[in-house]
Amino acid sequence: MVYRIRVLKGMAEPSIFRYGLSSAEALSGLRIRVILAILASAILFTLSGFLGIGSESISGQITRLSPSEFETSKLVFLSGQLLSGLLYAVIILFFFGLFFHVLFDMDYKKILAVQLIVLSIGLVNKLISMLLAVFAGLGTSASPFSFGVIGHYVTDFEPVLFFLGQISIFQIAIIAFQFYMFRSLSEKKPGFILLILILLHILFWIIQAVLLAINLGKFL
Hints:
The chain has ten helices and two strands; from the N terminus they run E-H-H-E-H-H-H-H-H-H-H-H. With 220 residues, the chain is mainly α. It is globular.
């Protein structure tokens, strides 16, 4: 059976998506959707930079830089956002995909199809974060969809707030979706799959929090 990949249907009807992947002997439409998802990630991150989200460090130097230096700084920042969008998509699709392929012993193309949905959910999270930043002035650690809001009542330590800000309902949905898919596609024990997923996501959140804490997060 040839199963045609549909991103929106995969997000809206995961049970049908899982059945289709489990039964499929081949997948169609995967390559073009992967390319489009990578382009969408690059565009979304670049748009975030164009709107000035995360550019506080540059704006703070406006009085100390000449007009040409300031424009160069903005161009560098936008270039960083573009690269970040590409890197974000590549890591989720291919790096994590290869990691799961080796560890869970699953078909790589089927993992890529799952990760395509994961990337799409992540981009929805990014879009909502952008809207909150533009219209409500809320940063990642202050998003009402993340644990960062709770963190502000517990501590003022920025690295911890950045870490909690990475844990959102979208990230929890991603872990749940991956577990739901992988336990059907892999013969590994469900407990092992869930443990690896949680540890990998925690590591990813820590890395993002560290980059934000040392002021490299403006490129992410």
